[in-house]
Amino acid sequence: MSGRIDVLTIFPGYLAPLELSLVGKARRDGLLEIGVHDLRDWTSDRHRTVDDTPFGGGAGMVMRPDVWGDALDGVLVADSPSRTVLVPTPAGDRMTQAMAEELALLVSAGGQLVFACGRYEGIDARVSEHYSGRDDVTIREISLGDYVLNGGEVAALVVIEAVARLLPGVIGNPESLVEESHGAAGLLEYPVYTKPPSWRGLDVPEVLLSGDHGRIRSWRRARAVERTARRRPDLITGQGSPEIRLARPVDAEAIADVAARTFPLACPPQLPAEDVLAFIEEHLTAVDFRRYLRDRNRDVHVAEVAGAVVGYTMTVHGEPADPDVAAVVTGRPTAELSKCYVLPEHHGAGVARALVAATAARALERGVHTLWLGVNQQNERAQRFYRACEFTRAGTKRFTVGTYRADDYVMTRTLRPA
Questions:
Q1: Domain edges within the chain
Q2: What pLDDT does residue 175 have?
Q3: Pfam families of this UniProt entry (predicted)?
Q4: H-run or E-run covering 357
Q5: At residue 115, what are phi and psi to the nearest 5 degrees?
Q6: Per the omega criterion (within 30 degrees of 0), is the bond before 269 cis?
């Protein structure tokens, strides 16, 4: 089952560029299905009205929730393994390469993205409120940057191209994706040259003509670092995208430090402090993490910023030991997202999202159908985050910390179609 992308707009012609270039070719080759829909097809009056005056007064018009609700209900695919509604808005989360990679993973696993392109003063806020409260749909507000456009169509075009080019088979040479700006190395791309070797008094750097691939790689790396330091120093100093990688034994001490600092933050307030400390000593020490890293049934990812570990995830592969979990997690093979923690000073910077995206990608590589996790029923912030990462509530379980038994929700995310 291939994924699909749908766009709802009052200007369907605006999306015509999706017929061109690599995205258009991907559509023709059957690598990606894209549907463009006229929002006015869901209106019921002869004027095909999609907007009205704002309650409370003010300038401009607001797009009606009844029209948008009918349109979204009509476009969302019932049997899709994941359904994500993307609302372009200046108030949304900043679009990044990590987000593009996350969305591409959803599409490649058969999921659906739906772009809700607003106009005028925007879409009635109840639309986002309604769909964010549903377990079968994830809604995300996204922004291209700190500026305002006339509508969401331009943003939809940008995001669709950023996602589509990451799908398998769309880019002819996959190495192009590895070396480009904002890739895995977190650097801007090095300068590139082609024929003629001399043009208007400017020569191609000699090293690129040498045939020495080792020197060429070193030169390109150095130029990428220089360019990034000059144009985007935030990426060098660690304020940009983190480096996400599989953990190594040498990381055990750093992971244990992060675990000890972050585990208490996820615990319910009534949990006795001595039970929290005892749990850390029994399960989250450097000795424990060295053992976890040797376990072939576990994957541990870390997020590094400026060379320091600031977050981690741990996935445990295999059948759930808890019968309550096994009963509600229906997809097989399955794996548990057992740990997902980021230091508080890095919250809101996209670190946790990048960790989950890499973790899901690794699980997908290992053949996992369904990823599941437990989250405390009182931890609404974490629940919102996991819903934004395509997890939906599937049931409940109990989690014991010392003498305290906590009530958890079991949340699942389907990584591949059955």
A1: 4-172, 180-238, 240-414
A2: 54
A3: Acetyltransf_1, tRNA_m1G_MT
A4: helix 351-365
A5: -95, 125
A6: no
Flag whether pLDDT at 355 surpasses 80.
yes
404 is in an annotated binding site: no
Buried b / exposed e over 111-150, threshold 16 CB at 10 Å, is bbbbbbbbbbebbbeebbebbbeeeebbbbbbbbeeeeee
User: 4-172 adopts what CATH topology?
Assistant: Alpha/beta knot (3.40.1280)
Closest residue by Cα to residue 372 from 349, 344, 351, 394: 394
Q: Do domains 4-172 and 240-414 have the same CATH topology?
A: no
Contacts of 248 (CB under 8 A, 6+ apart): 293
Q: Give, in order, the Cα–Cα distances in Å from 71 to each of 40, 41, 107, 114.
A: 9, 8, 21, 11
147 annotated among ligand-binding-site residues: yes
pLDDT tens, 118-132? Answer: 999 899 999 998 998
Q: Residue 416, Cβ neighbours under 10 Å: how many?
A: 18
The yes-or-no verdict on residue 381 having pLDDT over 90 is no
Alpha helices, H only, 82-179 = 97-108, 125-132, 153-164, 175-179
User: What DSSP designation does 329 have?
Assistant: -
Q: What is the pTM of this model?
A: 0.56
Which CATH superfamily includes the segment(s) 240-414? Answer: Gcn5-related N-acetyltransferase (GNAT) (3.40.630.30)
Of 146, 80, 142, the residue nearest 117 (C-alpha): 142
Residue 144 annotated as part of some ligand binding site:
yes
- Whether 103 has a binding-site annotation, put simply, is no
**Helical packing angle, 125-132 and 65-75, nearest 10°:** 40
Is position 375 annotated in a ligand binding site? Answer: no
Which DSSP letter does residue 123 get?
B
* Nearest one of 238, 223, 286, 240 to 259, comparing CA atoms: 286
CATH architecture for the domain at 180-238: Orthogonal Bundle (1.10)
Does 38 belong to an annotated binding site?
no
Question: Is 299 annotated as a binding-site member?
Answer: no
Residue 253 has pLDDT above 60, yes or no: yes
> According to DSSP H, which parts of 139-272 are helical?
153-164, 175-179, 213-231, 233-237, 252-262
